[in-house]
Amino acid sequence: MLTGSSIGTFIPRIDLLALLRNMQIPEWGIDWLKHEQVALMAALFAYRTGLFTLG
Protein backbone atom coordinates (compact mmCIF):
# COMPACT_ATOMS: atom_id res chain seq x y z
CA MET A 1 0.00 0.00 0.00
CA LEU A 2 2.84 2.36 0.80
CA THR A 3 4.49 1.64 -2.53
CA GLY A 4 1.24 2.28 -4.42
CA SER A 5 0.73 5.57 -2.62
CA SER A 6 4.29 6.60 -3.37
CA ILE A 7 3.89 5.83 -7.06
CA GLY A 8 0.51 7.59 -7.12
CA THR A 9 2.03 10.83 -5.88
CA PHE A 10 5.33 10.50 -7.75
CA ILE A 11 3.92 10.09 -11.27
CA PRO A 12 1.85 13.33 -11.36
CA ARG A 13 4.81 15.33 -10.07
CA ILE A 14 7.14 13.95 -12.72
CA ASP A 15 4.52 14.53 -15.45
CA LEU A 16 4.11 18.15 -14.37
CA LEU A 17 7.86 18.66 -14.22
CA ALA A 18 8.28 17.22 -17.73
CA LEU A 19 5.50 19.46 -19.03
CA LEU A 20 6.81 22.65 -17.43
CA ARG A 21 10.41 21.96 -18.40
CA ASN A 22 9.69 22.54 -22.07
CA MET A 23 7.42 25.57 -21.63
CA GLN A 24 8.35 29.23 -21.53
CA ILE A 25 6.66 30.67 -18.46
CA PRO A 26 5.95 34.42 -18.66
CA GLU A 27 7.37 36.78 -16.04
CA TRP A 28 3.98 37.23 -14.32
CA GLY A 29 3.74 33.43 -14.03
CA ILE A 30 7.11 33.23 -12.30
CA ASP A 31 6.07 36.01 -9.89
CA TRP A 32 2.82 34.18 -9.13
CA LEU A 33 4.63 30.89 -8.45
CA LYS A 34 6.88 32.63 -5.90
CA HIS A 35 3.82 33.33 -3.72
CA GLU A 36 2.15 29.94 -4.09
CA GLN A 37 3.90 28.30 -1.13
CA VAL A 38 3.07 31.19 1.21
CA ALA A 39 -0.59 31.13 0.18
CA LEU A 40 -0.81 27.36 0.65
CA MET A 41 0.77 27.49 4.11
CA ALA A 42 -1.53 30.36 5.17
CA ALA A 43 -4.58 28.42 4.01
CA LEU A 44 -3.48 25.28 5.85
CA PHE A 45 -2.76 27.27 9.00
CA ALA A 46 -6.16 28.99 8.88
CA TYR A 47 -7.92 25.65 8.33
CA ARG A 48 -6.07 23.92 11.19
CA THR A 49 -6.68 26.77 13.65
CA GLY A 50 -10.38 26.91 12.82
CA LEU A 51 -10.41 30.37 11.22
CA PHE A 52 -12.47 28.88 8.39
CA THR A 53 -13.89 25.51 7.43
CA LEU A 54 -14.44 23.85 4.10
CA GLY A 55 -18.00 23.22 3.00
Structural commentary:
- By secondary structure, this protein is an all-alpha fold.
- Helices cover 76% and strands 0% of the residues.
- The radius of gyration is 16 Å and the shape is flat.
- 0% of the residues are buried.
Question: What is the element layout, followed by pairings?
Answer:
Layout: H1 2-21, H2 27-34, H3 36-49
Features:
mainly alpha; 55 residues; single chain
Q: How would you classify the helix and strand content by structural class?
A: mainly alpha
Q: List low-confidence stretches.
A: none
Radius of gyration: 16 Å
Can you give the mean pLDDT?
Answer: 84
**Shape estimate:** flat
Number of helices: 3
How large is the share of residues in beta strands? under 5%
User: End-to-end distance, in Å?
Assistant: 30 Å
Give the biggest sheet: none
Offer a quick outline of the entry.
With 55 residues, the protein is an all-alpha fold. It is built from three helices and no strands.
